[in-house]
Amino acid sequence: MMQQSPQAGLNVVRLRGIGKTFSNGTVALAGLDLDVRAGEFLSLLGPSGCGKSTVLRMIAGLTKPTGGSIDWAGGAERPELGFVFQDATLMPWTSVFNNVWLPLRVAGVSKAQAAPRIEQALSLVGLSKFRNSYPRELSGGMKMRVSIARALVLRPSILLMDEPFAALDEITRFKLNNDLLQLKAELGTTVVFVTHSVYESVYLSTRIAVFAARPGRIIQTIEVPAPYPRNDEFRHTPLYADCCRTASHALTGAMATEDHL
Fewer Cβ close by (within 10 Å): the C or N end of the chain? Predict the structure, then answer.
């Protein structure tokens, strides 16, 4: 379903010296450097307001930096991207099937042409039986699955996710964490995931970039060397505990840095 990805481990996009100053004078980012490697699960971890979502939107081309450069592998143009927002942002007046069709419809693909891709995306997130349901008939977790299917229907090589599980209860969040890792295993896509949860970032990621704010920048990068597949047993391992401790200390340091600015 996915596009061919570059060789695993190679950089697919490189951000250098990124700055972002908003029209009101707020400096959101300054001097930020970040590489995204092909096939990795990269989490952007930090407190609210540190520029994580702004970086994600820059990678997606939804906003532009006021300084620095964003370069794609080999000088290529931006590849097909999927974007999952914190809110499911579904159209309440139409079916799950039509909600997933939306990005293809905008691209001029008819419903008949899009149907196989929509069915495949719904199958990947376990919602084939709910294709004719309306958002009001779905739980919060199911709505987020529809949002993920809508991103996957574009067959992106990179999936960008902006705190997609933040509003969900812990049990649903854990379940969707596992489902997301299963999707990644099946599709081999690169994932860039914004979160403010230490535990979620360690469970999901191969690498974590820890942000500090005022201005936003990366102060530490943490490798999570646990192999995939991962399951709930990973949460009880010494490696998980060690990585959580390292990420927690880095996040505490980031917040202390902010307090002294």
Answer: C
